Amino acid sequence: MADDPQRNFRSAYYEKVGFRGVEEKKSLEILLKDNPLDLEKLSTFSQRFPLPSMYRIHVWKVLLGILPPHSDSHTLVGCYRKEQYQDILEALEIMRYINSFTPSTHVYLRMFQLESQVLPRCSETMPPDEENEDFLSISRAMEEIVDDPVDCYWLIKCFVNQFHTKFGDSIPHLPKSLEHYLSQEEPRLLNHLKNTGALAQLPHGLWFRRCFAGCLPESSLQRVWDKVISGSCKILVFVALEILLSYKIMLMGINRPEGMVKFLCNIPQENTDAIVTKAIDLWHKYCGTPMHAV
After folding, report:
1. Are 112 and 156 in contact (CB under 8 A)?
2. Distance CA 98, CA 110 (A)
3. Cystine design at 14: which of 19, 163, 214, 259 (Cβ 3.0–4.6 Å)?
4. CA–CA gap between residue 212 and residue 233 (Å, rounded)
5. Rounded to two decimals, what is the model's pTM?
6. Cα separation of 6 and 59, whole Å?
């Protein structure tokens, strides 16, 4: 479908006078009135535009399958989700896996393990391993974004499950993609990373497995998760790429791999919105822009 020239003119005008996103918000509201909801159009919208904060959690819940496409069933299904949450919580309390002092993120982990049938015996409970630490990092970030604990658990569970189901086979290949795009954008930096031995030690494994939870503040992170939840793990590559490009001068001045890793594991938090915006632009540059959803 060709873009509407009149709509493009209006969008350019709104952006010029400081009302960027006015048209997009209206488009999303139209999509959300459909019954059943069109998941493909919602995904396309989320790929193309940042979700308005007032609709973000609702759209995530629909795209992750927590709520069904039929809007008239949302209230009933929401009640079922709450009942299931309470049942799992009570079961873990009775089995003494959790109590009133257990951190909420660890409660979510035990709930997830119980539902996934991998709950360890109480006597065998060990400190969280790498996979569990990834889950806990995502949980801590989601908890900052979502206020309601029931919604928070379901979003964590379905986000993690969808991520591993859809993208599990792709994650090991993302570092190679990062190297490729870095060679296109800044070959001098790539050569510096290779020559210092830092390329293989970059924390991109952590970034990709945790979808940047614990690396970016939640205000920036949720814009990245819009793209992941709506069907793209490639966005993670471009966020990593833009982090490297944004701190190119700093990285070029460091000659020890451990120094680079230390810096990249604690990047400044005040510039992350600009990094994510530029990353999304790079993603669209190399991967194209989905057609308009409405």
Report:
1. yes
2. 8
3. 19
4. 12
5. 0.89
6. 27
